[in-house]
Design goal:
Elements: E1 2-4, E2 10-12, H1 26-54, E3 69-74, E4 80-84, E5 93-95, H2 108-112, E6 116-118, E7 124-126
Antiparallel strand pairs: 1-2, 3-4, 3-5, 6-7
Protein name: Lipoprotein
C-alpha cells in the first residue's frame, strides 16, 4: 500500500499476510477434551455406584420386625407376625425356637421357616402346604 511520507515522498509499505492463529482450533480441541472429560467422569461415577451398591457389604437388609417388636409364627402354618416386646404372642401364634429366629428378610431362618413350622407340641415339622 502506498502512503505519503512527511516530505511528500512516496513510501511503499508491504503488508505482511495475516497469519491464522492456532487459537482458532484450540476451542474446538478444548471442547472435545471437556466432552471426553465429562464422559469419563460419568463412566467412572457409574462404575463406582455399581461397585458400592451391587458388590458391597453395605447392602441394605430389611428387618423382619421393627424395633421394640419380636417375630412370632403360626402353629401348624408358615404365617408370621410381629408382636410388641411387652406383649405375649396372640392365640394361634408362638415364638420361634431360640437360635432359629429370623432377623432380616431372606436371611437363613426366614427362608427356612417358609417350608417348616411348629406343631401344637412345639416340634419342628415340614409345612404340609409348602411348595
Amino acid at each position: 500500500m502506498a502512503t505519503g511520507g512527511e516530505s511528500g515522498e512516496h513510501v511503499e509499505r508491504l503488508e505482511t499476510p495475516m497469519l491464522m492463529s492456532r487459537r482458532i482450533s484450540r476451542p474446538i480441541a478444548a471442547s472435545r477434551r471437556r466432552g471426553l472429560s465429562a464422559v469419563t467422569t460419568v463412566l467412572v461415577g457409574g462404575a463406582a455406584l455399581v461397585a458400592l451398591t451391587g458388590c458391597s457389604a453395605l447392602e441394605f437388609k430389611e428387618d423382619i420386625c421393627s424395633g421394640g417388636e419380636y417375630p412370632v409364627m403360626t402353629v401348624n402354618g408358615t404365617g408370621s407376625a410381629c408382636v410388641s416386646d411387652d406383649d405375649k404372642p396372640p392365640s394361634g401364634y408362638v415364638r420361634y425356637p431360640e437360635g432359629k429366629v429370623p432377623k432380616h428378610v431372606d436371611d437363613k431362618w426366614d427362608v427356612y421357616w417358609r417350608t417348616h413350622t411348629l406343631d401344637e407340641n412345639g416340634k419342628i415339622i415340614d409345612d404340609p402346604d409348602a411348595p
